[in-house]
Automatic annotation (TrEMBL):
Name the record gives this protein: Uncharacterized protein
Pfam families the record matches: GILT
GO-annotated cellular components: extracellular region
Signal peptide: 1-19
InterPro entries linked: Interferon-induced_GILT
Subcellular location: Secreted
Transmembrane segments: none
PANTHER family membership: GAMMA-INTERFERON INDUCIBLE LYSOSOMAL THIOL REDUCTASE GILT, GAMMA-INTERFERON-INDUCIBLE LYSOSOMAL THIOL REDUCTASE
Molecular-function GO terms, alphabetical: oxidoreductase activity, acting on a sulfur group of donors, disulfide as acceptor
Keywords, in A-Z order: Glycoprotein, Secreted, Signal
Similarity comment text for this entry: Belongs to the GILT family.
Keyword Signal among record annotations: yes
């Protein structure tokens, strides 16, 4: 299956699709003969050249006390995406979810405790710099919270486990208790509200390459497999063998 976004882009850009093409758009670039039959051979080749070796961007909309979000982070995001596919993905975390901004005051789905945790995680993500660098810490934090620990205890445990420097700890603490934390949550709300073309309907909600689509939500648990298919270039060892030639034909690499 070719990337949903690539197929959408190619379908929109294709001029005069061949009338003999009876293949779903998501498969057009799987094989050069199909691409030629459907009149999108050049578009498939252009896409492959433009995105070869580029990380697949995965954005997660979530909230700190959402059970489904915790399960996704604990069972899919950290072990299967970050750990196994970290070299080919760019993970963006937005801890806001179904919260609402009511006249400047953020109201969270699971109450003030969740708002406080969302703000703390926004600060941690802000200060733990580097591609995907905050993921292990957020995973640790969400696991501790899932296991029943309060935020203060969870943060101490995860600071030690992830070896977060005292300087960064201090910055996160100041952010959490000050105006920067509020601003980061306001920004997270604006970012969440601005996604498209489909607005999020629940959390966890996943965007691919910054685009929100219904179809992606139905494959959340299989997301690692699709990332393997979407990435154009040599695959990590964790990718199944059949992903080496699926997603986009190797002729276009």
């Amino acid at each position: 299956m070719f990337a949903l976004l690539a197929a959408t882009t190619i379908a929109l850009c294709a001029v005069g699709v061949n009338g003999a093409c009876n293949i779903p758009p998501t498969l057009w670039c799987d094989n050069p003969q199909i691409a030629k039959k459907c009149g999108v051979e050049q578009q498939c080749e252009d896409y492959a050249r433009a995105f070869e070796h580029q990380r697949v961007k995965i954005t997660l909309l979530y909230e700190a006390l959402c059970g489904g979000c915790q399960q996704f982070i604990l069972n899919v995001l950290q072990p299967q995406i970050f750990h196994d596919l970290g070299d080919i993905v760019d993970i963006e975390l937005i801890p806001y979810g179904n919260a609402k901004n009511e006249s400047g005051t953020i109201v969270c789905q699971h109450g003030e405790k969740e708002c406080d945790m969302n703000k703390y995680e926004s600060c941690a993500i802000h200060y733990i710099n580097g591609t995907n660098a905050a993921v292990p810490f957020i995973y640790c934090l969400e696991k501790a919270i899932h296991d029943g620990k309060e935020l203060a205890e969870a943060t101490k445990q995860c600071y030690r486990k992830e070896k977060i420097s005292t300087a960064v700890q201090s910055k996160i603490s100041t952010c959490h208790s000050g105006p920067l934390g509020d601003k980061l949550q306001q920004d997270a709300g604006l970012r969440t509200d601005a996604i498209g073309p489909i607005k999020h309907k629940f959390v966890p909600w996943v965007l691919v390459q910054g685009v929100s689509l219904n179809g992606v939500q139905s494959i959340q648990n299989d997301l690692p497999l699709f990332i393997c298919q979407w990435y154009i270039g040599p695959k990590p060892a964790a990718c199944p063998p059949d992903s080496i030639t699926s997603g986009i034909d190797t002729r276009y690499w």
